[in-house]
Amino acid sequence: MLTFLALTSVALLGIVPEQSQAIVIYTGWERHALVGSDIRLSCSFFSWRWTSEDVTFSWTYRPDGSRDAISIFHYTGGAAYLDNKGPFRDRLEFVGNPGRRDGSILLKNLELSDNGTFTCDAKNPPDIVGRPSSVRLLVFEKVPIQAGVITGAIIGVVLGLLLLIVVIYYLMRFLVARRVFSLSVSKHGKKKKEGSQQRQLWTPPPLTCYPLP
């Protein structure tokens, strides 16, 4: 009876509980970095609602070869809580902007043991239903061969195109100069031939000899 009266009151007053909608979370797919460098792991989300003051971000880390994930960062109530005991102690910094739906973190002075999967989860109440997004971090002592080969190939293609452009440019200049020279020689030869023909057509009058008195 009480439940019926409560529902009736809600209907009469037009009070409808706010329904939550799905939230979509975005991170990168895979990031590469060198030992000793820093890297930013981005996390953002899409929600149909305005950014809530109660927005939250959470990051977890699962090392390669491990099944268990550990919490390394949490943002809630306008405050960021960093990992002070785990593997990223003193090496993690919050660089996001919750007001712009950015929950990115910065990992400093990377080590080979940092290889693993980082998962970001975000909530924008009342939108709290969504699938966390993960990004895999690969740390190398030096640039991977595959990356070096791709970079070298790109540089080679660019240099090849520049060389081809230079060759075409000078070839066009040579052809134009050759054409101009040919026209100049042809025009000069034609004028010379016309002058010779005019000299051949003109003959001086015969000389007449008279006897002396």
Automatic annotation (TrEMBL):
Q: Which GO terms describe its cellular component?
A: plasma membrane
Q: Which Gene3D superfamilies match?
A: Immunoglobulins
Q: Where in the cell is the protein located? A: Membrane
Q: Where is this region: Disordered?
A: 192-213
Q: What is its main location?
A: membrane
Q: Where is the composition biased (Pro residues)?
A: 203-213
Q: Does the keyword Transit peptide apply?
A: no
Transmembrane spans:
145-171
Q: What's in the keyword line of the UniProt record?
A: Disulfide bond, Glycoprotein, Immunoglobulin domain, Membrane, Signal, Transmembrane, Transmembrane helix
One Gene Ontology BP term is: myelination
Name of a matching Pfam family: V-set
Topology term for the membrane: Single-pass type I membrane protein
Where would one find the signal peptide in this protein?
1-22
Boundaries of every Ig-like domain copy: 17-136
According to its UniProt record, which protein family does this protein belong to? Belongs to the myelin P0 protein family.
- What is this protein identified as? Myelin protein zero
Origin organism of this chain?
Answer: Oreochromis niloticus
Q: What is the lineage of its organism?
A: Eukaryota, Metazoa, Chordata, Craniata, Vertebrata
Task: Write the gene name.
Answer: MPZ
